[in-house]
Amino acid sequence: MTRITGKTRILFILGDPVAHIIGSALLNEHFAERGIDAAVSPLHVVPEDLPRALDTLRRLRNVAGFGVTIPHKIVVIELLDSIGERGRQVGAVNFVRRNPDGTLHGDNVDGLGFVGGLLEAGVAIRGARVLQAGAGGAGRAIAFAMAEAGAAELTIANRSPDKARELAEAVARAYPACRTRAGRDDPSACDIAINTTSLGMKTGDALPLPAERLGPAAIAAEVVMTPEVTPFLAAAAARGCRTVAGKAMLLAQLRAASDLVGLA
After folding, report:
1. Strand, helix or coil for residue 153
2. Under 8 Å between Cβ of 193 and 219
3. Collapsing DSSP states into helix, strand and coil, what is residue 85?
4. Distance from C-alpha of 28 to C-alpha of 252, rounded to nearest angstrom
5. Are residues 163 and 225 in the same domain?
């Protein structure tokens, strides 16, 4: 168990709810394995309390920073002092560094982590046809990252078509070599099907994509980390598809998040 003292750098992961969060445990293992004197805990912050929570964190001098998860990744931006290039491009932040003067600098390592997790699992992204469910905070980061990694086609399906179109247009402007569009949630012709929504986190959630239309050669990937095998991944596996769990993304994020807060 990590020994926490007055010298230990403290981090939090802000979300609502927090029962599903496993990133704190993995970050604690990451720090312990590398002999870094830091400790992480989830912090349950409801949306209306987010401004007050950040105001408090600014004043806590042994806080190194904090992660940001659902539903705060987009709204937190207006509460920060500065944002990195990826966070600005994506329009969402998932990790924040507290500077010695109490200012807060945020950036987004969701996309880096997701792509890193796929590559570590042996998934070829370059030239792939990708279908993505979701255009929220994680979805924005992953869409940009998949295009940057060389996906040939990216179709974004979202319950709000306008939001999907706005994201598709932004990705197309940034990475014109990737044919990006908003479209239907039909995975029959895709090589990689990605769930970037929270569907699958709660018992009884609908599937984010119709898994029964996946081809057996397709790869299904998740951002939901708890449960580790979501109904979407289970349905895809039953079709003969390879699957990549949300935990793979988180493990690949650890180094980038540690670098951001100065605890590499």
Report:
1. strand
2. yes
3. helix
4. 14
5. yes
User: pTM to 2 decimals?
Assistant: 0.83
Is beta strand 9-15 parallel, antiparallel or unpaired with respect to 63-68? parallel
Q: Which domain holds residue 181?
A: 111-249
Out of 7, 73, 202, 247, the active site residue is 73
Domain count, the chain: 2
> Would residue 2 count as lying in a domain?
no
Q: Is the peptide bond before 176 cis (omega within 30 degrees of 0)?
A: no
Please write the tens of the pLDDT for every residue from 150-181.
Answer: 999 999 999 999 999 999 999 999 999 999 99
38-44 vs 9-15, strand pairing mode: parallel
Is 73 assigned a catalytic role?
Answer: yes
| 125 and 158 both lie in a single domain | yes
Quote the pLDDT of residue 2. 67
Residue 43 in contact with residue 18, Cβ under 8 Å? yes
Decide if 220 contacts 159 (C-beta within 8 A).
no
Residues found in the chain: 264
Q: Please state the separation of Cα 73 from the chain's center in Å.
A: 9
